[in-house]
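User: My collaborator sent over this chain with a note saying "see what the structure looks like." That's all I know about it. Can you take a look?
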Amino acid sequence: MAPPAGQIRPAKYLGAFVLIVVALYALVFFTGNGKATPKLGIDLQGGTRVTLTARAPDGQTPTEEALNQARTLIETRVNALGVSGAEVVRDGTNLVITVPGEDSEGAKSLGQTAKLNFRKVVGSPLPNEQPAPSSSSAPPSTSGSAPPSSTPPASESAGAAPTTTAQGRPAPAHEGQPETTGQPPSTTGEAPPSSQPPAEQQQVDCRAVFMGQYSDDPTQAITESRQCRQDPQLTTLDPQTVQQALQAFTCPTNDPLLGNDDPALPLLTCDQKLEYKYVLAPVTPPSDGSVKEDDYSLYSRLTGEDIDNAVSGTDPQGAGFIVNLTFKGPGGEKWGKFTSANVGQQVAVVLDSQVVSAPNINEAILGGSTQISGQFTQREADQLANVLKYGSLPLSFEASEAETVSATLGLASLQAGLIAGGIGLALVFIYCLLYYRLLGLLTILSLALSGAVVYAVLVLLGRWIGFTLDLAGIAGFIVSIGITADSFVVFFERLKDEVREGRTFRSAVPRAWVRSRRTILSADAVSFLASAILYVIAVGQVKGFAFTLGMSTVLDLVVVFLVTHPLVALVSKSKSLSSPKLSGLGGAVQAGAEQRAGATAAKSTAVKEV
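Assistant: Without extra context I'll predict from the sequence alone. Here is the result:
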């Protein structure tokens, strides 16, 4: 037979709660790594967060398909870092990379488009005037070059080079440098002539572009860069005009052409350190059949898609690190034909429109493998190999925000969050003890059990769905303390109202629960809906706040229904514990007695008057 409305069997509910707690902690200790430690965000344990802003090659808004494909590729690169807890999240047209731990600096380079080309160097590279090199007589020193002081002339390096690799030593202008011949120059200006119609040519000031002045509109800036820096005549001009174009050009700090160059056109660009300037030949020949299929004297026809694998390693020829490339079958054939046709000349390894390395080709390289060598650190070599290995991104990205939090600062943030939570709990405990006494103790016990359940859920969510606790999440838990305590207050105040009406503690509990239950459910439903809406419309760390607040609200209902109400029902059945002075209901009993006495006196007076 079921008990009357509001009356329950406390042991049944408490037993159900105990089973839930046992099940949760069994999953915590006997699944996964068995450690009862939640995953912490970078603001608590240290790490790096990078926000990448996407842009399509034409400057338009990126498509959903391109963004999802880019997220998948970057996620693969993140996983290759070997750092647990890393994640890649879409935020509109942005991608947010979060990599916890001390070894997270590599996340800042994960947004590289990895648009890799091999281009022949036309003429000789010149030093950039903006970041002036340490010595004007030293050869170029890109990120893929050997130290300037140790670079021998081309004739010496050709004799000393291994027979299977191209060494990363971009050479300066010297007597032995092959010259590119072609049609006479059609202009004597500082900027190369444009192949665009006159009406379009007048819209672009190539002198301004060469000085690094671009339109504020990304689409227009890309158009300006292509028109002036990818002029088809760059490979047909005489060497003197090519050098004039190089002298007039200044390496832009923020290059709109980054990752957006056309491989079918020549390219005027710089190395990754913005120290030297290059004129590079097209990657692919014209499609009109004017170039023979076996003519590799100018066109390498090699892109990142021809790479089968990329592995970093130490340089067997000296100090530093290299990236060993293995080409796919057709790629190896192309590389062999290109190096055979260009012995003694330079080939630029171009990543995202910038020169990584410009080695001299000492001899034909057959066998389908080569290496990018130079002054790489181990981290740089690993990053480059990672980028090349996992393919090109369909979009260009720029790091609009990059934040690195040290482990020490993260620990300080965690301690501050715990102190704030502890102060909030202490204030709630003091208030409950002073105002509710024994019922206050039940509140404290309920909050402690709620905390145990929340902690277990946090550990499991971090293990199952990768949920990380950050400062915003801790703030959500601190706010939820008030929501949980509010449920207790609603129940206890309704209990006092029943006692004031003359009911005993025991008889007041079921009636107070029935009347307060609807209020508790309504309040928690409003709080949960607010958290859900905030989670849907919010971005970044605010989602963590909304998630923890909503989760705590749901667990609040579990604790109130399975712990607080049964415990109060148990106390009400004990003669010693249900004492008004001990239970904190003494004031309500006294107020009820005074009200009834007043009502009785008023009734007696009215009878006498009648």
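A starting point for your reply to your collaborator: The CA atoms of residues 140 and 546 lie 53 Å apart.
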